[in-house]
Amino acid sequence: MSLLPNNTIISLTFLLTVIPGLEAAHIWISIPFYFLYAIAISGNSMILFVILTNQSLHEPMYYLLFMLSTTDMCLSLSTMPTTLGVLCFNIQEIGWNACISQMFFIHFLTVMESSVLLAMAFDRYIAICNPLRYTTILTPTKIIHIGMIIMARGTILMTPLLVLLKRLSFCRDNILSHSYCYHPDVIKCSCSDIRVNSLYGLIAVLCSFGLDAPLIGISYVLILLSVFNIASPEERYKAFSTCISHIGAVAIFYIPLIGLSAVHRWGKKAPPFAHTLMSNAFLILPPVLNPIIYSVKTKQIRRAILKMLNWKKNLKHPIEGQTRLKSKTSP
Questions:
Q1: Which of 17, 210, 238, 303 would give a disulfide with 206, using CB separation of 3.0 to 4.6 Å?
Q2: How many CA atoms lie within 13 A of 269 on its CB side?
Q3: Are 285 and 252 in contact (CB under 8 A)?
Q4: Which pLDDT does position 9 carry in this prediction?
Q5: Which of 213-222, 237-246, 259-268, 316-325 is the most confident on average?
Q6: Is residue 194 helix, strand or coil?
Q7: Per-residue pLDDT averaged across 161-178, rounded?
Q8: Cα end-to-end distance, the chain, whole Å
Q9: Per-residue pLDDT, 98
Q10: pLDDT of residue 1
Q11: Helix axes 272-297, 96-129, angle to 10 degrees
């Protein structure tokens, strides 16, 4: 296996894979991926449109949901070209610059998603534990500042990953185990000492997910203590029901993340499809399920979507819509 020195790294290419051993079934495998990506992009686009066009949803909770949907849609768009390219057109090669760009955006967006989930947990904590000061604490200006901090945090944590990759030399047989460039996967192709890269990758994980998850957990402990102090069972249920959507979003993000990290760290003897299954679950499930969860469980979002769909239906059938309107207004 020959070395490729880092002075010619720009001409380096990697080979992407989806599910090793099932190359003949790629066309059939692409069908569910098409549907999942379509649901993710259309669902998040609908959430964004509804929040933008409804003045009643211009509140801190929905601004943060807007950030989450934007992140989810960008995450889907960052992996969709290479995944569908491999499955539909057998385009397995990806160049060095394209690979590190995709890797940066995937990791940057996952850190952003974790940060947004933490901000949403803080939003729910203030809304339930300190409702009288909610509008004074979470002003639109504060939300903008939170968004800027989230973006800056992701950039600061992920930029050193790219810098450290520049020092590595790579072998010519650079076969990745995913349909996209993932940092632990890329550095395993290197023939250099990757201990510094692995160490910084661990530090980045601890400073993002390892910090966010406990803080989200603490916020929900405080929320539960506050909810249990409410005397009325109905008010107690009403207060906690506002957190159901967020709890679902946290679960579908962190459970696949923990599984993927465990497979990469300790699953050397795991079958290849285990890596593929966990990585796709981590990157595809949150963008697909978050819009569904928030559309079903959040009353204001559900009403706005139904109103929008009904408005579009009336545009398509104006006579029927006018007849229905007259029947409602007639004595």
A1: 210
A2: 0
A3: yes
A4: 58
A5: 213-222
A6: coil
A7: 84
A8: 85
A9: 92
A10: 46
A11: 40
What's at 173, amino acid-wise?
D
Which is higher by pLDDT, 303 or 44? 44
- Tell me what pLDDT residue 259 has: 81
CB 161 within 8 A of CB 103: yes
Task: Answer whether residue 273 shows pLDDT above 80.
Answer: no
Whether the per-residue pLDDT at 312 is higher than 70: the answer is no
State the amino acid at position 201 in one-letter form: G
CA distances from 243 to 135, 140, 250, 296, 308 (A): 18, 21, 11, 13, 25
Query: If DSSP codes are grouped into helix, strand and coil, which group holds residue 271?
Result: coil
| Residue among 180, 146, 184, 135 nearest 66 (CA) | 146
**Residue 230, helix vs strand vs coil:** coil
Task: Give the whole-angstrom CA distance, residue 13 versus residue 9.
Answer: 9
Name the phi and psi angles at 316, rounded to 5. -75, -35
The rounded distance, in Å, linking the Cα atoms of 41 and 298 is 19
Average pLDDT on 259-267 reads 73
φ/ψ of 263, rounded to 5, equals -65, -40
pTM: 0.88
pLDDT average, residue stretch 274-297: 87
Long-range contacts of 200-207 (CB under 8 A, 24+ apart): 200/160, 200/161, 200/164, 201/161, 204/107, 204/111, 204/157, 204/158, 204/160, 204/161, 205/261, 207/157
Q: E strands within the chain?
A: 3-4, 13-15, 93-95, 170-171
Cβ neighbours of residue 90 under 8 Å, at least 6 residues apart? Answer: 23, 26
CB-neighbour burial class of residue 248 (10 A; exposed 0-12, middle 13-18, buried 19+): middle
